């Protein structure tokens, strides 16, 4: 099942922040995790993942480092303190939202 | 220094980066499909070189990781999605990461481009506007004249007299004073042109002036007027009223002839000259007259009043009782400035100007045009490039056709109303500001520049002085008739009413009855003048000594000078 663009616009950044909460990751790794952890539901078009990461970086929610130790440079993203606070806040909001939707019978409780 | 260093670094890094993102893509062992997608994204995202470098490394890594995961290039490209969308989103995201200074500069650049675009559109709109005059106002102004049979028009006789007498080169001709030192020269002139002066009198006796305005009109007369090249498309302007100056000249000649007749004890000639002056003044204020014409009429009337005054003082016997009654009846008809000044012609001329200056949307509105601006601009220099560039802005500043007509109507209607009231009523605090158009807010000069470039404020001061001194002469005529009957002047003016005077005229400054004194057996009629103090009939002091009219007007028209305004007599 694919999520509509408007819903994805709100969910995508939270999902990426949540994945980064488990440690730093590079772009393709995030693509794979999104696919796997959400059973494909949150598998966003890969073309939109990188702009999403750049936006999160512009907002100071994530930071990046280039690892040049391997055969080719790899860019790793990790949560900043601001990103962590944002993730906490968003998580709370999502929980409240899903609970409310559950009470309405839209989602299972 | 730091900035220069940073710029050099960026330039150096940028040049290297430009080479590198292409090399990175080329050197990576990417399948051609993936390479094409990465290249496309980077080209379309139009990023700074070092930004492209970072994105290139990341996208190349993405496709290499996909390949390492066993995903075919075709599948990886399909999974990646739309490269155009990716490029757009990446560009937006990268822009967000750029410095505030860059955002400010971008905003300024975009604003400038926007302003330039708007200005270009405004200019195109402005320069595409063309006036489209629909009404032939010259025909409207000429209508009554053309309805008058030629033998009833005065102008053919006036022009004949002008041709016969030429335009004498007297110094300060228009203020030539019959009582001044130039009198011998002036007397010689009138003595040399009895036939031409008679022609002027015959012209004045005709019911209408009969000057045909506009191209192919009376002005196309090389014997009288120097050639004045004009286009039929331009509106009428003051050049078309040059004949007014000639009529003033003829009025002065009649006035000089009246003095000569008085000195020669030629009563019939004298009364014919005075009557001709009054007739000529009437010809200058037909229903469609302009302010310019009617002001000239006020001048001519004033000379008639002066000659009557002088005759009553110096040679009263030259005028019969019947002539005195007729004169009093004639000049007594003027009640307010509205009987002497006309603004109808100005209305028509303004409407003509507007139709030559504005476009016409067919519903009474329109916008200012480039041609129109040239007509109402005050400078006679050729418009420069700066003026050409700035001209479209007038669309934002100058009032629309409808607004400008409405505002003009507001002004002219106010002026017409004012002409019906004595000036003393207008000088009150509430009305003082209404006396002059230039006392209105500055916005008029730009928003309604079309009006201010055209509008001639009706100078009611001149007609007010005429009416005041006419009042003096009216009383003077009544006093002379009383003297003829009783052998002496009355003690008070009440004795003149109602047999010789219907009512004692009001002082035009205070509204109270005019003052009357017998001084050494001679009558004196006066107003208390602008200072409103009765100085016992002593005139105010002008630059050259006592001046009978210097206290006739008051602020804002003139400063207050102590003294009385002598209404009668002026002549010694």
What ranges of chain A have pLDDT less than 50 throughout 5 or more consecutive residues? none
Structural class call of chain B reads: mainly alpha
**First-residue to last-residue Cα separation of chain A:** 20 Å
Number of strands of chain A: 3
Sheet of most strands of chain B: 3 strands, antiparallel
SSE class of chain A: alpha+beta
Low-confidence stretches of chain B: 1-15, 429-443
Helix-strand topology string of chain B? HHHHHHHHHHHHHHHHHHHHHHHHEEEEE
Task: Walk me through what this model shows.
The complex is a heterodimer of chains A (109) and B (572). Chain A starts with a helix and ends in a 6-residue tail after the last helix. In chain A, a hairpin with a 6-residue loop joins β2 and β3. Chain A has a 3-stranded antiparallel β-sheet. Chain A has helices at residues 5-20, 27-37, 46-58, 81-103, and strands at residues 25-26, 62-67, 74-79. Chain A contains 4 helices and 3 strands; from the N terminus they run αβααββα. Chain A is of the alpha+beta class and 109 residues long. By secondary structure, chain B is mainly α. Helix content of chain B is 57%, strand content 4%. Chain B contains 24 helices and 5 strands. Chain B has helices spanning 2-27, 32-45, 49-68, 73-80, 83-97, 100-127, 137-147, 155-165, 183-192, 194-204, 242-263, 267-283, 291-314, 321-331, 344-357, 370-376, 385-390, 394-397, 401-419, 423-426, 429-432, 443-447, 449-454, 460-486, and strands spanning 515-519, 522-527, 540-542, 545-547, 565-568. In chain B, the strands form 2 sheets. Chain B has a 3-stranded antiparallel β-sheet with strand order 1-2-5, covered by helices on one side. In chain B, strands 3-4 form a two-stranded antiparallel ribbon. In chain B, a hairpin with a 2-residue loop joins β3 and β4 (545-547). The longest helix of chain B is centred in the first third of the chain and has 28 residues, at 100-127. Chains A and B meet through α2 and α3 of A and α3 and α5 of B.
């Amino acid at each position: 099942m694919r999520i509509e663009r408007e819903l994805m616009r709100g969910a995508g950044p939270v999902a990426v922040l949540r994945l980064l909460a488990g440690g730093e990751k590079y772009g393709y790794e995030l693509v794979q995790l999104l696919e796997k952890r959400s059973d494909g539901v949150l598998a966003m078009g890969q073309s939109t993942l990188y702009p999403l990461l750049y936006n999160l970086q512009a907002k100071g929610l994530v930071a990046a480092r280039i690892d040049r130790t391997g055969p080719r440079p790899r860019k790793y993203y990790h949560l900043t303190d601001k990103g962590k606070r944002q993730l906490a806040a968003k998580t709370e909001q999502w929980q409240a939202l899903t609970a409310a939707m559950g009470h309405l019978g839209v989602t299972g409780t | 220094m730091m900035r220069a260093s940073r710029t050099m670094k960026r330039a150096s890094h940028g040049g290297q980066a430009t080479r590198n993102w292409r090399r990175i893509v080329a050197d990576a062992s990417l399948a051609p499909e993936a390479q094409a997608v990465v290249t496309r994204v980077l080209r379309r995202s139009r990023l700074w070189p070092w930004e492209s470098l970072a994105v290139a490394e990341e996208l190349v890594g993405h496709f290499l990781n996909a390949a390492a995961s066993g995903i075919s290039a075709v599948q990886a490209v399909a999974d990646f999605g739309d490269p155009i969308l990716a490029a757009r989103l990446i560009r937006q995201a990268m822009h967000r990461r750029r410095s505030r200074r860059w955002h400010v500069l971008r905003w300024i650049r975009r604003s400038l481009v926007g302003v330039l675009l708007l200005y270009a559109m405004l200019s195109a709109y402005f320069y595409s506007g063309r006036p489209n005059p629909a009404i032939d106002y010259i025909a409207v102004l000429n209508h009554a004249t053309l309805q008058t049979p030629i033998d009833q028009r005065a102008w053919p006789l006036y022009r004949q007299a002008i041709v016969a007498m030429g335009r004498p080169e007297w110094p300060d001709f228009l203020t030539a004073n019959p009582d001044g030192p130039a009198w011998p020269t002036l007397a010689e002139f009138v003595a040399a042109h009895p036939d031409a002066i008679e022609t002027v009198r015959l012209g004045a006796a005709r019911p209408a002036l009969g000057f045909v305005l506009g191209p192919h009109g009376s002005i196309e007369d090389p014997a009288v007027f120097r050639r004045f090249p004009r286009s039929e498309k331009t509106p009428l302007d003051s050049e078309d009223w040059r004949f007014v100056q000639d009529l003033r000249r003829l009025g002065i000649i009649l006035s000089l002839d009246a003095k000569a007749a008085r000195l020669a004890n030629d009563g019939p000639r004298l009364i014919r000259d005075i009557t001709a002056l009054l007739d000529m003044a009437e010809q200058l204020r037909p229903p469609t007259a302009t302010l310019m014409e009617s002001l000239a009429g006020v001048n001519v009337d004033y000379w008639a009043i002066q000659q009557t005054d002088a005759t009553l003082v110096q040679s009263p016997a030259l005028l019969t009782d019947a002539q005195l009654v007729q004169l009093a009846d004639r000049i007594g008809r003027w009640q307010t400035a509205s009987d002497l000044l006309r603004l109808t012609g100005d209305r028509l001329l303004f409407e003509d100007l507007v139709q030559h200056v504005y476009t016409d949307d067919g519903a009474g509105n329109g916008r200012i045009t480039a041609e129109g601006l040239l007509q109402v601009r005050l400078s006679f220099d050729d418009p420069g490039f700066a003026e050409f560039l700035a001209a479209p802005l007038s669309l934002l500043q100058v009032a629309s056709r409808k607004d400008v007509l409405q505002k003009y109507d507001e002004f002219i209607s106010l002026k017409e109303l004012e002409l019906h009231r004595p000036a003393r009523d207008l000088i009150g605090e509430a009305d003082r500001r209404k006396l002059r158009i230039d006392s209105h807010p500055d916005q008029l000069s730009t928003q309604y520049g079309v009006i201010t470039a055209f509008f001639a404020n009706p100078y009611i001061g001149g007609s007010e002085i005429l009416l005041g001194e006419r009042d003096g002469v009216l009383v003077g005529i009544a006093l002379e008739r009383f003297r003829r009957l009783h052998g002496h002047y009355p003690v008070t003016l009440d004795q003149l009413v109602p047999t010789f005077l219907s009512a004692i005229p009001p002082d035009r400054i205070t509204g109270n009855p005019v003052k009357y004194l017998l001084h050494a057996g001679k009558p004196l009629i006066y107003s208390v003048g602008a200072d409103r103090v009765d100085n016992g009939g002593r005139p105010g002091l002008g630059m050259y000594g006592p001046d009978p009219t210097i206290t006739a007007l008051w602020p804002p028209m003139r400063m207050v000078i102590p003294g009385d305004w002598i209404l009668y007599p002026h002549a010694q």
